[in-house]
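Need C-alpha cells for this chain, all 342 residues.
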Amino acid sequence: MSDHQNLRVVLASRPVGRPKSSDFRFEHAPIPEPGDGQVLLEIQTLSLDPYMRWRVSAAKSYAPPIEIGDVIVGGTVARIKASRHPDWREGEIVLSESGWQRYALSDGSGLRRLDPAIAPPSTALGVLGMPGFTAYGGLLNIGQPKPGETVVVAAASGAVGSIVGQIARIHGARAVGIAGGPEKCAFVKNELGFDAVVDHHAPDFAQKLAEACPDGIDVYFENVSGHVWDAVLPLLNDFARVPVCGLIANYNDDPSTSSGPDRLPATMREVLARRITLRGFLVFDFTDAQEQEFQRQAAQWIKEGKLRWREDVVDGLEQAPQAFIGLLDGRNFGKLVVRVAP
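Here are the C-alpha cells for all 342 residues:
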C-alpha cells in the first residue's frame, strides 16, 4: 500500500452468530489533511476488545451500533504526524479513539498525552487504560473485597481478569482465577501470583473450582457466563457480590437459533435465597476522579512489582478482523493489540 493512502477497516455486514471475514471490508482513501484546529494522527497500536462485538450488532445496547460502511471503533495509541492545533505538537504520543485505520483526524478533544518514559505507550490500551480501570472500578465499587474473602474471576489471563485478581490480592483477598488451558493457567498462577487457578476446559471443572474455594465465593467477577457461571453459582456465599463485566460466551449467539439452557430461574432463586448482589456495569459509570486515582495507584503498583501484564501482539492492520474473531473464540493470551505501524 502507498504511504500516501489511508487503510481503513469498515463494517461490510452485520455478523449473524460468529463474525466472518466477509463482515469486514478494507478500504483505501487519501490521507486526510488537518484543517485549522485539527491534528493528523498516525495510528501505532490498535486495541481489540470484546465490547466491539456489541457495537457491530444492531441490537439495543449502551451505545449506538456502528453503521454499515463505517470504520470499526477502537482505542488507539497514535503519533501526531501533523498539527494545526495550538495545544498539540507534532511527534507527541497520544491515546485516542480513532478505530481501525492507519490515519485519523482529531480536533484534540478526547486525546490524552502519553509519556513513553513512564510505561510503554501500549499499556494505555491495557493495564493503564480502559481494561485496567474496568477491573479496578468494577471490583472495588461493586465487589468490595475484604481481607480474607475469596474473589473468583473468569478469563483470568485476559486484559481485565488478570488485573482483577492482582488488585484483589493487593487488598488482602484470596484470588482464584478461571482460565482456558494449561499455558494460561500456569501464567495466572506463576506469573500473576493468583492463589489458585482452575482450567474451565477440564471435564471435572466444577469439582475443581469447588476444591479451590473451600469457603465458598464472596466476590465473582463475571466476564464469561455459560458453563463457567453454572459452576460458580452453587458456590456463592450469602451476600456475595457479582460485578457483571462481560458475557463473552454468549456474544456470538444467534437469538433466532439459540437453544441453550435457560439459566434465569436458577440464578434468580439463588440471588433471592442468598441475598446476592448482581450488578452489571460499564467503565463509564465511574468518575474521572476515580480514574485519576487508578492511574496513580496502578503506576505505583507496577513500580513495586505488584501489578503485571501480558500483551498478545498481532502485526498489521490487515490482520485485525481475524484477530478479533479469535478474541471472541478465546484464542488470545493477554491484552490483544494490533501493531499498525512500526
